[in-house]
Each structure stands twice: as structure tokens, then as C-alpha cells.
Amino acid sequence: MLTVYSDSHRLQHGQSELIDGTLKPCFETPSRADMVLAAIRERELGDIIHPRRHGLDPILRVHDADYARFLETAWQRWSDMGRDYDALPKMWQVRRLREAIPDHVEGQLCYYSMDCGTPITAGTWAAATAAADTALTGADRLIGGERAAFALTRPPGHHAAFDYCGGYCFLNNAAIAAQALRDHGMRKVAVLDVDYHHGNGTQDIFYRRSDVLFLSIHGDPRTEYPFFLGFADEKGEGEGLGYNFNFPLPAGSCVSTWFVALDCALDQIARFGAEALVVSLGVDTYRGDPISRFQLDSPDFVTLGARLAGLKLPTLFCLEGGYAVGPIGTNVVNVLAGFEARG
Ligand SMILES: NCCCCCC(=O)NO
Ligand SMILES: [Zn+2]
């Protein structure tokens, strides 16, 4: 399987995030991508190519232009204030506060974000656009007839919505790729999110559409991040009603429960008649993940890959979460190898 990879991911290296009430070193580190790349090479999964630049247009097919401009300019405006440390918001526009877009960068940080764990740094824009190009280059290969590709995307993307960042995500790589597949003639595209956390950003982007089916298996938002989206009764709106499926599972759910949910999701994708599949591949479902609470073990990721291959669809994998850095390479490549072995 082809891998698309850019060393520009290294430009996103936040120092700290506010999690569980304290500032901690970021879990979303460059070493995650290093470990995955090493495993790709060690297991001889296939060729590794650099992404082609695609510019802003494909990004603006799913993201708000003002939000993109904020991401592009935030660091310069923040550092012009004499601040040489990561940019993080200090409050959010919650119920009954004005939904006004502030002029100042500090206020825009609050308006265009959903949490305090997604630091904007000097290299954030470059890293995020390189990740989008990585996903788009993978999509190009599917459009060109390849059966599958792996976009080693960092920073991840599935929490990034039309006009806000969060969960370590700035641009929604999987959504950008799904839209590109649609723009290049694939009539129906499914996005399956198997990360531990609900893909609120991807849901937000496609919620009112029937040409892109979104499905997510994740920790129950009643107790798990992102808390405020990912419930089973969210089925889409308007044209999109019936084209959104959430499978929230209680924290601590066993592996067999997880695979029952997967089979339900795969069945919906087959019923939809998808012509291509984009997988938001988070491996924080791993039993040893430091911030998540499912039980998958490394061999289960081989099974996951094989189940996905059973759909017989052109498939693009986009890396999302996974913070057990030691085994992340094994777990990611197990999915990809399991997919390939199924044929
Ligand atoms: N800082 C709070 C937890 C962010 C979750 C990030 C993630 O793995 N999303 O898939
Ligand atoms: Zn996650």
C-alpha cells in the first residue's frame, strides 16, 4: 500500500495542552508520525511519496474562508504581541453570549476553537496545510485507480469543523479528501471514523448532505471527549437526514462489542452504495492508550483492516489519534497490512 508522508508535520510541535485540569506536555507529538513511518518501512508496506501541493481551494471546499485566514495569520498576530509561546484561548463563546467575531487575535482564538488542547504555533499553518496536501495526494491516487492509500497525516483532522479547531486538529484532512473524491466524479463517498473520539468536525461538515455518508464508532460523549456531539440520535439534517450514523459505546467496552458496532457501520456503508471509503484511522482505541478507554489489542487492528477490505472499495486511510507512542506504528500498520492481506 502506498503511503503519503510529509516531514512538514514536524512544524506542529505544541509545548503544552490543558487536559484534566492541568497544563501537560502535548500528547500529539511529532514522535507519533516518526514511529508510524518507521513501522511502514520496517514492514515494507509499500512506496512512500511526498504530497503534491494543492493550494487553498480544496481546503475551502469544506472550511470557512475566514477561519482559514485566522489559522494562517494567528501566529504572526500573536507573536506581534510579544508572545513567543503557544497560542491558546482563554474562554469560549457559550450560551447567550454574543456570536460576534472579535477583531483581536485573542478573541478570534476563542471564537475559532472548541478547546484548550490545540496550541497554535509558528509552524501550525504550514503543518496543517501539508497534512491536507497529504490526504489530497492520497485521494489523487484513488482517483487515478489505486485501490488504497495511507495518508500519514499529522496534525490530525477529524475534530476540525467548518469553522473551528480543536482536539489537536486544524484542517479536516479526511473531509477535505472526501470532498476531493466527490469533486473528481465519485458520486457517493463514505467517511468511517474509527478513532476513540467522535469525529465532530467531519459530522459538522457533512451533516446536511446525502452524498457523503458519515459514520463514527467512539467513546460515549456522555462521559468522553468531545462531550457535546456524537450521540446516536444525530442522524443528519435536511437533505442529510439518514446519512449520519453514530455508534457511541461506553468507556471500557469490550473488543467484541466494538466489532459488532463496526459490522453495523460496514453494513450501512454497503447499503449506501459508496463508491469510495475514507477511513479516519485513529488507533487510540488501543487498550494502552493514555487518554482513551477502549480495549483493542494490536492483533485486533489486523482484524479491523481485513473487515474494511471486505467492502471492496477504493479506500483512503487518514491518520487521526493514537497516543501510546511505542505501539502506534505496529497498530497502524496492522490495520493497513490486514487490509492488504484480505485482498
Ligand atoms: N485534549 C482532550 C482530548 C483530545 C482528543 C484528541 C483525539 O485523540 N481525538 O481523536
Ligand atoms: Zn482520538
From TrEMBL:
Keywords: Hydrolase, Metal-binding, Zinc
Pfam families the UniProt entry points to: Hist_deacetyl
InterPro entries: HDACs, His_deacetylse_dom, His_deacetylse_dom_sf, Ureohydrolase_dom_sf
Lineage, uppermost ranks: Bacteria, Pseudomonadati, Pseudomonadota, Betaproteobacteria, Neisseriales
Keyword Hydrolase carried by entry: yes
Keyword Zinc: yes
Family from the record: Belongs to the histone deacetylase family.
Name of the protein in question: Histone deacetylase family protein
Location of the Histone deacetylase domain: 28-336
Cofactor: Zn(2+)
Organism field: Chromobacterium piscinae
